[in-house]
Design a protein that fits this description.
2 domains; Diphtheria Toxin Repressor, domain 2; Arc Repressor Mutant, subunit A; mainly alpha; 59% helix; 3-stranded antiparallel sheet; 119 residues
Length: 119
């Protein structure tokens, strides 16, 4: 959802289902929950977009994800090829812990894969 919204500002259920390799019905159910949680908004023609609350949540998760990538690669020397999946599993951390990790890592501005870490 986030990646599609960067390009056009919107995504469609079909795009998400195809990129996640899941049934469209699965995406529709998840979208309903995200709409009711105030994270996504529905628009005409089947378009969906992040709400300001949803965008803030994505920004927080992306920052944490990149910080965890830095920690895995630079601090514990985890193989780069295996970092992405593990970092996603660990990305939903407390904001206080994320700040401590950021400081401990020397306030990095890029992930090991050269993605910018936005504060």
């Amino acid at each position: 959802m986030y990646e599609y919204s960067l390009v056009t500002g919107f995504a469609h259920n079909k795009q998400l289902a195809e990129s996640l390799d899941v049934a469209p019905a699965s995406v529709t159910e998840k979208i309903k929950r995200l709409v009711s949680g105030g994270l996504i908004k529905r628009h005409p023609y089947g378009q969906i977009s992040l709400t300001p609350q949803g965008a803030a949540q994505v920004k927080r998760l992306m920052r944490n994800y990149y910080l965890i990538e830095v920690w895995l690669v630079n601090s514990i020397h985890y193989p780069k090829a295996n970092v992405a999946d593990l970092a996603w599993q660990m990305a939903d951390i407390d904001d206080c812990l994320a700040e401590m990790l950021y400081t401990q890592l020397g306030e990095p501005n890029k992930s090991p894969f050269l993605e910018p870490i936005v504060c």
